[in-house]
Amino acid sequence: GINAEYMGVVSRPVPQGTTAVGVPSRVIGRSSQAANSPDSDALISSDAYGRIVAVTPAVVALFGWAAAELVGQNVSMLMPEPFRSQHDAYIKKYLKTQNAQILGKRRTVPAVNKRGELFNIGLCTSEFVCGAQHLFEAVVWRIDESDEGAAFGGDFVI
């Protein structure tokens, strides 16, 4: 395996050939310096299999998981049921049909932190294609109940 520094997060060793290996930070469009800023956006990068390949420190603060606990895991671990069980099917359907439901759109969705607590987040997801690799970057932010539009308004369909 190879340790790859990606968006300022050192991933754990991963098998050669997985999307976490050799994906340069410029693909995502964020420098390592900006990603490590305590004021950075909460960014989650995942591959076409839903595996998290990188997170920023703001994601760690928001969800309570250490970066090393997130990288390599399925992004659905941050979602409550039934979305957790359905997310991989959403990705597969999108990759097959290219019919995007949420790419580039802001949505309010439920999330779950390490302690199992539910909360609402804002979500905006983008896709990046690097050769044959499809990568997804999600910008997320916490939405308090007092925030306008905090009610859940959709699902995690790509």
Gross morphology = globular
* Helical proportion, percent range: 10-25%
What amount of the residues lies in strands?
A: 25-35%
Please report the number of helical segments: 5
Pick out the low-confidence regions.
1-35, 150-158
Rounded mean pLDDT is 76
Gist?
This protein has 158 residues and is an alpha+beta fold. It has helices at 25-28, 32-35, 57-63, 67-70, 83-97, and strands spanning 5-6, 9-10, 42-47, 52-55, 106-112, 118-130, 133-143. A hairpin with a 4-residue loop joins β3 and β4 (52-55).
Q: Which helices and strands, and how do they pair?
A:
Elements: E1 5-6, E2 9-10, H1 25-28, H2 32-35, E3 42-47, E4 52-55, H3 57-63, H4 67-70, H5 83-97, E5 106-112, E6 118-130, E7 133-143
Walk me through this protein's architecture.
- This protein has 158 residues and is α+β, with helices and mostly antiparallel strands.
- The chain contains 5 helices and 7 strands; from the N terminus they run E-E-H-H-E-E-H-H-H-E-E-E.
- The strands form 2 sheets. A 5-stranded antiparallel β-sheet has the order 4-3-7-6-5. A two-stranded antiparallel ribbon has the order 1-2.
- Strand 3 and strand 4 form a beta hairpin.
- The longest helix is centred in the middle third of the chain and has 15 residues.
- The N terminus and C terminus are likely disordered.
